[in-house]
Amino acid sequence: MPDSALASGATTAADAFRRDVLSGLRKSQKTLPSKYLYDARGSELFDQITRLDVYYPTETERAILREHIGEIAAAIGDRPIVVEYGSGSSDKTRILLEELQHEIAAYVPIDISPSALGDAAERLRQRYPAMEVLPVAADYTRPLALPELPPHDHIVVFFPGSTIGNFEADEARAFFAQAARVAGSGRGTGGLLIGADQRKPLDVLIPAYDDPEGVTAAFNLNLLTRINRELDADFDLGLWRHEARWNENESRIEMHLVSQADQRATVAGEAFAFASGETIHTEISTKYGPEGLADLAADAGWTRQDRWTDARSWFAVERYTL
Ligand code: AVJ
Q1: Is 166 in the pocket of ligand 1 (CB under 6 A)?
Q2: What's an example of a GO molecular-function annotation for this chain (predicted)?
């Protein structure tokens, strides 16, 4: 980028990261945005999480998709553009793509991690040579431009994994509104296929976010490693512990990093004090009731058309149209 663009106030990803980290650490309940958990190492660790026995969402959602894929494909209709938000390794999309590869006008995976995105796009092109893959490396919580799209009948937004649960209610509403703008910009009626984790007993929920092998702990703590590396910070990794808590009022799991001592850390030249036991809140993972998602989506003009769940109702895949 030319210097003049920087001088005029354009922000780079690095600027946004520094700004968000510093403003989060200045709050009384210190907080860091969960999207920053996904650097190259964090994306790898998240992939490991999805393969843990205690982490039920990935397998449960996959089983739902597999079981109902015929119905889902028929409902999606002809010649769609499939836009996936937070595609990561695009593993779950395979189930959809296997069924739709010859129908799909283009697959547009969007992810904040350029490394995960590049690897996934490469693999998909080899596996589905006839399908157009148009990856976009971007933070989809900010306005973004889609690449030029080939002819299509309509646009379907795919948002699996219950990533919607990482958003506060106002952020979730903003997401549904932006998905409506994207899906509504196609020729036919826009669609949304979204996965949502459901409320369930705590003896299932807590281990899913605090696994015995410590992969989720490593995933959470990696955010401090990233801040040390990218923002010239000096967090002592030995003095922080991972914690997964249930917040009943908000119906969500919260990940925190708990300070194990009175300590200080310097981040990009600014000093921060942490009391022993004080936490940095790093992620929320909302667990929905049967109508939870439909209520949020309705505010942005989405109407639920289908709802598929597993036998225990642990996870739901829902289809909406505009
Ligand atoms: C893929 C973002 C939905 O909240 O379950 C997994 C992220 N965090 N373990 C989730 C996550 C800790 C995951 N999402």
Answers
A1: yes
A2: methyltransferase activity
